[in-house]
Every structure is written in C-alpha cells, then in structure tokens.
Amino acid sequence: MEETEGRVPPVNLLFPLIAVLSPGFGGDEKAPGPIDWPCLYGADDGVVREQGLKLDWGEGGPPELWRMDVGVGYSQPVIAGGKLVLFHRKGDREIVVCLDAKSREQLWEFGYPSAYVDRYGYSGGPRCTPILSGKRVYTLGAEGKLHAIDFSKGAKLWARDIVADYAVEQGFFGVGATPLLEGDRLIVNVGGKTTDAGIVAFATGDGKTLWKATPHGASYATPKAATIHGQRHVFVLTEGGLVDLDPANGNVRWKVPFRSRLYESVNATSPLVVGDIVMVSATYGTGALAVKVNADGTYKELWKARVPDSHFSNLTAVGNDVFGFMGRHEGDSELFCCDLATGKIRWKVETPLGRGQLLCVGDKFLAWGERGCLGVIEANPKQFKLATTTNPDPRHGLLRYPTWTPPVVYDGRLYLRNETTLLCLDLRTK
Q1: DSSP-assigned beta bridge partners for residue 31
Q2: Which end of the chain is less packed: N or C, by CB atoms within 10 Å?
C-alpha cells in the first residue's frame, strides 16, 4: 500500500518510554494560558506551568470532555498551537494523525505500511513520541522508519530507514527510544552495533547523517541534553551504559557501563540531569547510578545502589530530592523519594497506581498509574501523602490496562491514552 500524504478528510470526520531539574515546580514562573507540549514529557520535561488547574476531584476523576477510538502503541500525544498529533497503528499501517485539540476534528493524516510483530506479544504499534518543531513533525516507528512531516499539511518531507541503513538487529520490543531534537539535528540511539552507529545525528533539514558514534545497542530511553560548566552535553543511556557526547560532532567524552547481567533486559528510563549531576536507573537487578560532571568534561561517580530501580517511569527532581516509581513488575512497584547526592531512600511506599508516570503541577504531582488510576501526590520529601485518587479498583479505571503512555496537559485539559482510546478530561477551575 502506498503512503498517504496530506490526506484531509471532511471536516466532521473523527479519526479514532524519564525530568530535568524543576526547581520549585516553576514557582512564580508559571505562565497563564496554553503552553505547547511538543515532545515527550513536554517542553519543561514533566513540569506543568499552566495556571488555574483543578486537582481536587473525587473518585470519578476530572470531568470528561470527550473520548475517541485510536489504534495501538505507547506513543504520547503532542500538541502545539491547538493542534494535537497522535502516532499509532491501525491494521498494517503506522499512522500520524493531526487533530484539533479541543474538538478532536481531524485535520490530516499520514500513513505507511508496518509489519512489526512484537516477539513477546506486546503492542505492535509505535513506542516513540513525535516531536513538533516549527513547521515540522518528526516520528520514529517501531520498525525504525524515521520521518519528517509537514505540520500544516501532513505531507512527507523526508524519510530514513535506520534499521536498514545501519544494520540494526531487532530489539526485544522494536525501536523505542524517542529521538532528541538538539538544534538542527535529531539525535537517535539507533543501535547499529556492527556499523559503529550506536548513536546517530540526523540533519533536520534533509535527514542526512551528520555523525555517528559508539558501537552500543539501542535502549528504550530518550537522550537528554544540558549545558554544564558552559559546555553542551547530550547524555544517552544506551543498551550498554551511560554515554556523554558533544552534540556538535558526536565526540564521546566518557562512557559508564550500566546494564543488567541478564540477556533479556533493557534500559528504559531516561537520564535525569540536575545541575552537574546525572542519574540513571533500571530494573532487572541493575539499580541506579549518579555521576557528577567535572568542569574539564570528565566525571566522578557519586554513588551506585540496587535501589531505586525504575523500569520505564520518569524520574523527577525537586531540588535535591528525586521522585519516581521503582520495581520491575506491577506487584512489586513502589513510589519513592531519594536523595540525589547520596542515593539514600527517604521513603518508599506501595500505591494503588502500580508503575506510573509523574507530572509536576505546582507543589504536587499528577500521577497516572498503569491500570487507569489517576492520583495527586504531595511533593513532600519527608513523607508520602496521597491527596486524592480516582477509584483504585482496576475494573473501574479511567482507561483499561495497560496505560503506560505518559499524560499530557494542555490548555487546562488532561489527555490520557491506552491502546484503544484517547481521553480528554477537564482540569479547568472555571
């Protein structure tokens, strides 16, 4: 089947993965009105800066505005300028669809064939979240098809097949590391072990390769960029460990081995960067590691421990305290708080959420659990306090399991999805 570029339906047709430092959750810097959510965890990496959000709802959750049928996949919706982009799979096609974020009216769709089959029986849809940048949308599918698409029309601008181009072996769960947009380049943990293309930078203008680095396999963690001691760094948690490189040329400053001894294991939680400290975490007996970046570009290990061990949830810092979910399985999952400088666990507790994702809203966390339970947790390093939650009974979740996709907040609305439904809830106080 041929690609469908810029196919615009009638106007009434509805078309059915870890935070950078967030001091004080924004404090006085919170901005009014809608703030674009252009990439995984948004422009502020999990920090919601919109004002006037209501978080004191009861067991039924926030009021529902609408819901619609969608295809499979774990990709997070992204929104800019009132337009929502969803990446999913229906039948034998991966599809990028653009909707009006308020009305859910479809504006355009772009699709192409996909034959991906997950070897462990999980979703056959895309894992990577799209990136919105100006007039373009960038997507990376489960089979490694990298696309640049016109944001206004849905037409293909360029495409790359990173699996074919760099002889990438199929990972346990397909291609799943969302790219990092860094200036005029997309930095991707490609995983080309035999082609020295573990990490590759692609030009946003035409998709050409700018540089490649390391023989590392791919992970499911998104790279993070930061300026430390006046130098720009990109930190990539690959299959084999943490890599620090120069995004301008791909020169590797240092590498730290970080991987489970189990063959059937993955690194899936994105690095956390706070000031000059970088923290990574993984399950399968791996644990966590924190390093300090020195002024000369080298690093010093601060600590290494068996816990916290985050499977795929994001890590969020409030000052020197790190919050997140740990545990490989739902049954052994706990919400935790630890000291970033030492790794000391301040508290850990079982919750009705299982494994989940956190968004910072004021002095609280909006927490989304894997069985469709939505909660509000106080950002308190001294003790755990669940302020409110929807019905924790998995039979009555807002959406059915698995709800592994991170939530999105835009213009006072909360967007949630699983593999059948996109749900829009109202967080506005008025």
Answers
A1: 50
A2: C
Q: What is d(CA 241, CA 261) in angstroms, rounded to the nearest whole number?
A: 12
What's residue 15's pLDDT?
24
Rounded to 5°, angle at Cα 153 from 149 and 155: 40
154 phi-psi bin (left φ>0, alpha ψ -120 to 50, beta other): left
Residue 23, preceding peptide bond in cis (omega within 30° of 0): no
The pTM of the full predicted model, rounded to 2 decimals, is 0.93
pLDDT of residue 403: 97
d(CA 108, CA 297): 45
CATH number for the segment(s) 4-426: 2.130.10.10
CA distance 190 to 88: 20
Low-confidence ranges of the chain (pLDDT < 50): 1-30
Minimal CA–CA distance to 194: which of 225, 167, 231? 167
In sequence order, what are the residues at sequence separation of 6 or more whose Cβ sits closer than 8 angstroms to the Cβ of residue 332?
none
Distance CA 30, CA 52 (A): 10
Q: In this structure, which amino acid lies at residue 39?
A: C
* Distance between start and end Cα atoms, the chain: 47
Cβ atoms of 151 and 83 within 8 Å: the answer is: yes
Query: Which pairing describes strands 47-48 and 356-361: parallel, antiparallel, or unpaired?
Result: parallel
Contacts of 334 (CB under 8 A, 6+ apart): 325, 326, 327, 348, 349, 350, 351
> Do you find a cis peptide bond into 130, omega within 30 degrees of 0?
no
Q: How far is CA 45 from CA 37, 183, 407, 408, 430, in A?
A: 9, 17, 12, 11, 26
- pLDDT at site 64: 97
- Give me the pLDDT at residue 393, please: 80
CA atoms within 13 A on the CB side of 188: 36
Looking at residue 127, its amino acid is R
Domain ranges of the chain: 4-426
